Amino acid sequence: MWMATLWAECRTQGDNVLQPKAEEMAAEDQTVTLDCQYTSTSTNVYIFWYKQDGTSRPKFILSCFSFGGGKTENEFMERLSSTLNSTTKSAPLKIQKLQLSDSAVYYCALRPTVARTSRTV
């Protein structure tokens, strides 16, 4: 039986991400979606997903951005994906064809980006 335990919440300067379900369980070869909801005062949001198994450090899976684009590590490209939806303020992680090695803690992280302008006085 596959099981992913999710990190509950992370906050940064008024912006935050929330992973509503603490655990997901599914059988091998199934598809599971891990939810990640965010609130941010920024319109340019970056969401990052990480996987941590055992006592190893978290491993970067992928990133997705408000204005399209992002990056997925090669080892995860075939079965893991996420799309940031600015309307629902969510970026769920979809894991297809579950394997026993998918059992881990999955972290959703937020990095708001604020555009700054400079003026010469």
Automatic annotation (TrEMBL):
This is Ig-like domain-containing protein. Coiled coil: none annotated. SMART domains: IG, IGv. GO terms for biological process: adaptive immune response. Pfam families: V-set (PF07686). Keywords: Adaptive immunity, Immunity, Immunoglobulin domain, Receptor, Signal, T cell receptor. The keyword Cytoplasm does not apply. InterPro entries: Ig-like_dom, Ig-like_dom_sf, Ig-like_fold, Ig_sub, Ig_V-set, TCR_variable_region. Signal peptide: none annotated. GO terms for cellular component: T cell receptor complex. It comes from the Eukaryota. The keyword Ribonucleoprotein does not apply. Residues 15-121 form the Ig-like domain.
